[in-house]
Design a protein that fits this description.
alpha+beta, Immunoglobulin-like, 2 domains, six-stranded mixed beta sheet, 3 helices, 11 strands
């Protein structure tokens, strides 16, 4: 029974289209009608009719609104909003980076007109700072702490075997004001006889290993110090010579002093 009433109300509400403006106009016309002077009863009846008409119009509007609300509440299910699923971006695993290529050494320079590379020199010049002979290797240089009035000439001597005899000479050309100020070496000074004297315009420093002593294999240093005339002094005429004797025989090296600044 209730379902039948609800169905009819829904049909009536759907079919009814109340004109609110028209209803109100009719109510206003009814209220503005001519008053009945002679008969009080019709006036009351007319006022009652007007009131009833207003109530009826209000009831129609209310009933229509309730019917529409009921229809909406019972027949219209709530709209369902479906949010589409957004696929997450696919993160692919990082591929291992390839190893860096091994650098290739550049090909040696070639002499124009020749397909073969130019080989390096196999033996140093006799006036170069570095020289080698047998177990001996030597390098001469001008100490970088030298000044315009004082110089130190250095000699590095390396030997791959013990030496039972060793004589070192450093020759410093007299360029003006050249005068001995001292010597030093990394080997014990008591193992050598050291002298410095000028001969024929050259200051000669000499280290001689004392008899019965041995110079061990390794790297050793010797230095000669001297004053000279003020100014930049050239070591172009200076030089050294090393004569040694070891278990493998005798060996000698010689060279000059290369500026280091």
């Amino acid at each position: 029974m209730n379902e039948e009433i609800a169905r009819r109300l829904r049909e009536a509400a759907e079919a009814h289209r109340p004109d609110r403006a028209r209803v109100l106009a009719r109510v206003q016309r009814g209220m503005a009608g001519p008053a009945v002077r002679h008969r009080a009863r019709p006036f009351a009846r007319s006022g009652t009719r007007v009131a009833l008409a207003g109530l009826a119009a209000t009831g129609i509007l209310a009933t229509g609104g309730l019917a529409v609300a009921a229809i909406v509440a019972t027949s219209s299910p709530p709209a369902t909003v479906t949010t589409p699923a957004i696929p997450s971006p696919t993160v692919s695993s990082r591929q291992p980076t390839s190893a860096r290529p091994t650098p290739v050494a550049p090909a040696p320079a070639t002499t124009p007109g020749s397909a073969r590379p130019t080989p390096p020199a196999t033996s140093p010049s006799p006036t170069a700072g570095k020289n080698q002979n047998g177990p001996l290797w030597s390098a001469g240089s001008v100490d970088p702490h030298s000044t315009v009035y004082w110089t130190q000439s250095n000699l590095v001597l390396k030997t791959t075997q013990p030496l039972t005899s060793l004589t070192i000479e450093m020759r410093i050309v007299q360029t003006g004001g050249v005068k001995n100020t001292g010597t030093w070496q990394t080997l014990p000074s008591a193992d050598f006889t050291v002298t410095a004297q000028e001969t024929d315009g050259t200051l000669v420093y000499r280290w001689v290993l004392k008899p019965g002593l041995t110079v061990p294999a390794g790297s050793h240093e010797f230095a000669a110090q001297f004053n000279h005339a003020t100014g930049e002094r050239s070591a172009a005429g200076d030089g050294y010579r090393v004569d040694a004797q070891g278990t493998g025989g005798s060996a000698s090296v010689r060279g000059g002093f290369v500026p280091t600044r």
